[in-house]
Amino acid sequence: MRIIEVESYEKLSALAADIIAGQVLLKPDCVLGLATGSSPLGTYANLVKRYEGGLLDFSRVRTVNLDEYCGLKGNDPQSYRYFMDKNLFDRVNVDKESTHLPDGSAPDMEAECSRYEALVESLGWPDLQLLGIGHNGHIGFNEPEDVFHAAVHTVKLTESTIKANSRLFDKPEDVPTSAITMGVGAIMKAKRVLLIAGADKAEIVERAFQGPVTPRVPASVLQLHKDATVILSKA
Ligand code: GLP
Protein backbone atom coordinates (compact mmCIF):
# COMPACT_ATOMS: atom_id res chain seq x y z
CA MET A 1 0.00 0.00 0.00
CA ARG A 2 1.35 3.40 -1.00
CA ILE A 3 0.47 6.42 1.13
CA ILE A 4 1.19 9.72 -0.59
CA GLU A 5 0.89 12.94 1.39
CA VAL A 6 0.33 16.13 -0.54
CA GLU A 7 0.17 19.74 0.61
CA SER A 8 -3.35 20.67 -0.40
CA TYR A 9 -6.74 19.49 -1.57
CA GLU A 10 -5.94 21.00 -5.00
CA LYS A 11 -2.83 18.82 -5.29
CA LEU A 12 -4.75 15.77 -4.09
CA SER A 13 -7.43 16.36 -6.72
CA ALA A 14 -4.92 16.92 -9.52
CA LEU A 15 -2.96 13.78 -8.61
CA ALA A 16 -6.09 11.62 -8.31
CA ALA A 17 -7.26 12.93 -11.70
CA ASP A 18 -3.80 12.14 -13.19
CA ILE A 19 -4.10 8.55 -12.00
CA ILE A 20 -7.65 8.15 -13.35
CA ALA A 21 -6.76 9.86 -16.63
CA GLY A 22 -3.76 7.52 -16.97
CA GLN A 23 -6.10 4.55 -16.54
CA VAL A 24 -8.47 5.84 -19.24
CA LEU A 25 -5.59 6.54 -21.65
CA LEU A 26 -4.12 3.11 -21.03
CA LYS A 27 -7.42 1.27 -21.48
CA PRO A 28 -10.08 3.43 -23.17
CA ASP A 29 -12.84 0.90 -22.40
CA CYS A 30 -11.84 0.49 -18.74
CA VAL A 31 -14.31 0.02 -15.90
CA LEU A 32 -13.99 2.86 -13.40
CA GLY A 33 -15.39 2.30 -9.92
CA LEU A 34 -16.53 5.71 -8.69
CA ALA A 35 -17.43 7.32 -5.40
CA THR A 36 -19.48 10.22 -4.10
CA GLY A 37 -19.03 12.58 -1.15
CA SER A 38 -17.19 15.89 -1.11
CA SER A 39 -13.69 14.38 -1.36
CA PRO A 40 -13.90 13.44 -5.08
CA LEU A 41 -15.45 16.74 -6.21
CA GLY A 42 -12.08 18.27 -7.09
CA THR A 43 -10.98 15.09 -8.85
CA TYR A 44 -14.11 15.13 -11.03
CA ALA A 45 -13.67 18.84 -11.78
CA ASN A 46 -10.10 18.09 -12.94
CA LEU A 47 -11.29 15.24 -15.16
CA VAL A 48 -13.94 17.53 -16.72
CA LYS A 49 -11.26 20.15 -17.41
CA ARG A 50 -9.07 17.59 -19.16
CA TYR A 51 -12.03 16.37 -21.24
CA GLU A 52 -12.89 19.96 -22.21
CA GLY A 53 -9.26 20.50 -23.19
CA GLY A 54 -9.46 17.52 -25.55
CA LEU A 55 -7.08 15.45 -23.41
CA LEU A 56 -9.49 12.71 -22.37
CA ASP A 57 -12.11 10.61 -24.12
CA PHE A 58 -14.71 8.86 -21.99
CA SER A 59 -16.77 7.49 -24.89
CA ARG A 60 -15.83 3.86 -24.23
CA VAL A 61 -15.45 4.05 -20.44
CA ARG A 62 -17.87 2.08 -18.26
CA THR A 63 -18.54 3.14 -14.68
CA VAL A 64 -19.92 1.50 -11.56
CA ASN A 65 -20.60 3.48 -8.43
CA LEU A 66 -20.20 2.16 -4.94
CA ASP A 67 -23.50 3.01 -3.35
CA GLU A 68 -26.83 4.79 -3.23
CA TYR A 69 -29.29 5.86 -0.55
CA CYS A 70 -32.36 3.66 -0.16
CA GLY A 71 -35.64 5.32 -0.98
CA LEU A 72 -34.31 8.02 -3.32
CA LYS A 73 -35.06 8.06 -7.03
CA GLY A 74 -32.23 8.93 -9.44
CA ASN A 75 -33.76 12.34 -10.16
CA ASP A 76 -33.80 13.28 -6.47
CA PRO A 77 -31.14 16.02 -6.00
CA GLN A 78 -29.87 14.17 -2.91
CA SER A 79 -29.35 10.89 -4.74
CA TYR A 80 -25.90 9.74 -5.68
CA ARG A 81 -27.09 9.26 -9.29
CA TYR A 82 -27.95 12.96 -9.41
CA PHE A 83 -24.56 13.84 -7.87
CA MET A 84 -22.67 11.79 -10.46
CA ASP A 85 -24.68 13.19 -13.39
CA LYS A 86 -24.17 16.75 -12.21
CA ASN A 87 -20.49 16.53 -11.32
CA LEU A 88 -19.18 14.18 -13.99
CA PHE A 89 -21.40 12.21 -16.35
CA ASP A 90 -23.30 15.16 -17.85
CA ARG A 91 -20.07 17.08 -18.31
CA VAL A 92 -18.01 14.55 -20.26
CA ASN A 93 -18.74 12.31 -23.25
CA VAL A 94 -19.40 9.11 -21.32
CA ASP A 95 -22.32 7.07 -22.67
CA LYS A 96 -24.95 7.43 -19.93
CA GLU A 97 -26.09 3.85 -20.60
CA SER A 98 -22.62 2.74 -19.52
CA THR A 99 -22.83 4.46 -16.13
CA HIS A 100 -24.21 2.34 -13.33
CA LEU A 101 -25.34 2.91 -9.77
CA PRO A 102 -27.48 0.75 -7.52
CA ASP A 103 -31.16 1.71 -7.77
CA GLY A 104 -32.10 3.00 -4.32
CA SER A 105 -35.77 3.15 -5.31
CA ALA A 106 -36.05 -0.49 -6.42
CA PRO A 107 -39.20 -2.12 -4.95
CA ASP A 108 -37.30 -5.24 -3.90
CA MET A 109 -33.92 -4.32 -2.44
CA GLU A 110 -32.78 -7.91 -2.09
CA ALA A 111 -33.32 -8.42 -5.82
CA GLU A 112 -31.57 -5.12 -6.49
CA CYS A 113 -28.51 -6.28 -4.50
CA SER A 114 -28.30 -9.45 -6.63
CA ARG A 115 -28.85 -7.49 -9.85
CA TYR A 116 -26.09 -5.01 -9.05
CA GLU A 117 -23.61 -7.66 -7.93
CA ALA A 118 -24.20 -9.61 -11.18
CA LEU A 119 -23.91 -6.42 -13.22
CA VAL A 120 -20.56 -5.43 -11.70
CA GLU A 121 -19.27 -8.95 -12.23
CA SER A 122 -20.48 -9.02 -15.85
CA LEU A 123 -18.70 -5.74 -16.64
CA GLY A 124 -15.52 -7.16 -15.15
CA TRP A 125 -14.36 -5.94 -11.74
CA PRO A 126 -13.20 -2.31 -11.78
CA ASP A 127 -9.83 -1.58 -13.35
CA LEU A 128 -9.57 1.27 -10.88
CA GLN A 129 -11.76 1.90 -7.86
CA LEU A 130 -11.87 5.41 -6.43
CA LEU A 131 -12.80 5.64 -2.75
CA GLY A 132 -13.37 8.21 -0.05
CA ILE A 133 -13.45 7.29 3.63
CA GLY A 134 -15.97 8.07 6.34
CA HIS A 135 -14.84 9.38 9.73
CA ASN A 136 -15.67 5.97 11.18
CA GLY A 137 -13.62 4.18 8.51
CA HIS A 138 -16.48 3.26 6.20
CA ILE A 139 -15.81 2.74 2.49
CA GLY A 140 -18.80 2.97 0.19
CA PHE A 141 -21.40 2.43 2.86
CA ASN A 142 -19.63 -0.53 4.47
CA GLU A 143 -20.14 0.57 8.05
CA PRO A 144 -18.15 -0.75 11.05
CA GLU A 145 -19.51 -4.19 11.92
CA ASP A 146 -18.36 -7.51 13.33
CA VAL A 147 -17.84 -9.05 9.90
CA PHE A 148 -16.87 -7.89 6.42
CA HIS A 149 -19.65 -8.21 3.83
CA ALA A 150 -18.30 -9.39 0.50
CA ALA A 151 -21.34 -8.83 -1.71
CA VAL A 152 -23.65 -5.92 -2.49
CA HIS A 153 -25.92 -5.47 0.50
CA THR A 154 -28.23 -3.02 2.20
CA VAL A 155 -27.06 -1.38 5.37
CA LYS A 156 -28.55 0.60 8.19
CA LEU A 157 -26.46 3.75 8.45
CA THR A 158 -24.82 4.56 11.77
CA GLU A 159 -25.80 7.69 13.69
CA SER A 160 -22.37 9.21 12.99
CA THR A 161 -22.73 8.68 9.22
CA ILE A 162 -26.24 10.13 9.21
CA LYS A 163 -24.94 13.12 11.16
CA ALA A 164 -21.91 13.59 8.86
CA ASN A 165 -24.06 13.38 5.73
CA SER A 166 -26.80 15.64 7.11
CA ARG A 167 -24.71 18.66 6.10
CA LEU A 168 -25.82 17.99 2.54
CA PHE A 169 -29.53 17.88 3.38
CA ASP A 170 -31.94 20.70 4.36
CA LYS A 171 -33.03 18.90 7.51
CA PRO A 172 -31.25 16.09 9.41
CA GLU A 173 -34.48 14.07 9.34
CA ASP A 174 -34.32 14.06 5.53
CA VAL A 175 -31.14 11.94 5.53
CA PRO A 176 -32.03 8.38 4.52
CA THR A 177 -31.29 5.88 7.27
CA SER A 178 -30.32 3.04 4.99
CA ALA A 179 -28.32 2.52 1.84
CA ILE A 180 -27.29 -0.09 -0.70
CA THR A 181 -23.56 -0.58 -1.16
CA MET A 182 -21.02 -2.69 -2.94
CA GLY A 183 -19.41 -5.02 -0.45
CA VAL A 184 -15.72 -5.20 0.24
CA GLY A 185 -15.55 -8.19 -2.16
CA ALA A 186 -15.97 -6.05 -5.29
CA ILE A 187 -13.68 -3.37 -3.87
CA MET A 188 -10.98 -5.93 -3.16
CA LYS A 189 -11.42 -7.43 -6.63
CA ALA A 190 -10.74 -4.07 -8.28
CA LYS A 191 -7.38 -4.25 -10.00
CA ARG A 192 -6.28 -0.96 -8.43
CA VAL A 193 -7.72 1.03 -5.56
CA LEU A 194 -7.25 4.76 -5.02
CA LEU A 195 -8.46 6.27 -1.75
CA ILE A 196 -8.46 10.02 -1.25
CA ALA A 197 -8.82 11.77 2.08
CA GLY A 198 -8.53 15.32 3.38
CA ALA A 199 -6.67 16.40 6.51
CA ASP A 200 -9.85 16.02 8.59
CA LYS A 201 -9.52 12.26 8.00
CA ALA A 202 -5.89 11.97 9.19
CA GLU A 203 -6.85 10.16 12.39
CA ILE A 204 -9.06 7.53 10.77
CA VAL A 205 -6.55 7.08 7.94
CA GLU A 206 -3.90 6.26 10.53
CA ARG A 207 -6.19 3.80 12.33
CA ALA A 208 -7.22 2.19 9.05
CA PHE A 209 -3.81 1.81 7.47
CA GLN A 210 -1.44 1.59 10.41
CA GLY A 211 -3.66 -0.37 12.78
CA PRO A 212 -5.02 -3.93 12.64
CA VAL A 213 -7.22 -5.15 9.78
CA THR A 214 -10.70 -5.32 11.27
CA PRO A 215 -14.32 -4.96 10.09
CA ARG A 216 -14.70 -2.40 12.91
CA VAL A 217 -12.63 -0.12 10.62
CA PRO A 218 -13.80 -1.30 7.20
CA ALA A 219 -11.17 0.60 5.17
CA SER A 220 -8.44 -1.38 6.98
CA VAL A 221 -9.15 -4.29 4.61
CA LEU A 222 -7.35 -2.29 1.91
CA GLN A 223 -4.08 -3.14 3.65
CA LEU A 224 -4.55 -6.56 2.05
CA HIS A 225 -5.09 -5.19 -1.46
CA LYS A 226 -2.21 -5.80 -3.85
CA ASP A 227 -2.36 -2.39 -5.50
CA ALA A 228 -3.79 0.27 -3.21
CA THR A 229 -2.81 3.93 -3.15
CA VAL A 230 -3.93 6.44 -0.54
CA ILE A 231 -3.58 10.15 -1.20
CA LEU A 232 -3.85 12.19 1.95
CA SER A 233 -3.94 15.96 1.92
CA LYS A 234 -2.21 17.82 4.76
CA ALA A 235 -4.57 20.77 4.49
C1 GLP B 1 -20.46 8.87 2.13
C2 GLP B 1 -20.17 7.95 0.97
C3 GLP B 1 -18.75 7.44 0.98
C4 GLP B 1 -17.79 8.60 1.17
C5 GLP B 1 -18.06 9.22 2.52
C6 GLP B 1 -17.13 10.35 2.86
O1 GLP B 1 -20.91 8.25 3.26
N1 GLP B 1 -21.06 6.82 0.95
O2 GLP B 1 -18.48 6.74 -0.24
O3 GLP B 1 -16.47 8.14 1.10
O4 GLP B 1 -19.39 9.72 2.51
O5 GLP B 1 -17.55 11.53 2.25
P1 GLP B 1 -16.78 12.88 2.26
O6 GLP B 1 -15.77 12.75 1.17
O7 GLP B 1 -17.84 13.91 1.92
O8 GLP B 1 -16.20 13.07 3.59
UniProtKB/TrEMBL annotation:
Keyword Transferase: no
GO molecular function, one term: glucosamine-6-phosphate deaminase activity
Keywords: Carbohydrate metabolism, Hydrolase
Boundaries of every Glucosamine/galactosamine-6-phosphate isomerase domain copy: 26-229
Any one of the GO BP annotations: N-acetylglucosamine catabolic process
Keyword Hydrolase belongs to the record: yes
Matches recorded under CDD domains: GlcN6P_deaminase
Record-linked InterPro entries: Glc/Gal-6P_isomerase (IPR006148), Glucosamine6P_isomerase (IPR004547), NagB/RpiA_transferase-like (IPR037171)
SUPFAM superfamilies reported for this sequence: NagB/RpiA/CoA transferase-like
EC number(s) recorded for this UniProt protein: 3.5.99.6
GO cellular component: cytoplasm
Residue runs in coiled coils: none
Protein name: Glucosamine-6-phosphate deaminase
Organism: Acutalibacter muris
Taxonomy of the source species: Bacteria, Bacillati, Bacillota, Clostridia, Eubacteriales
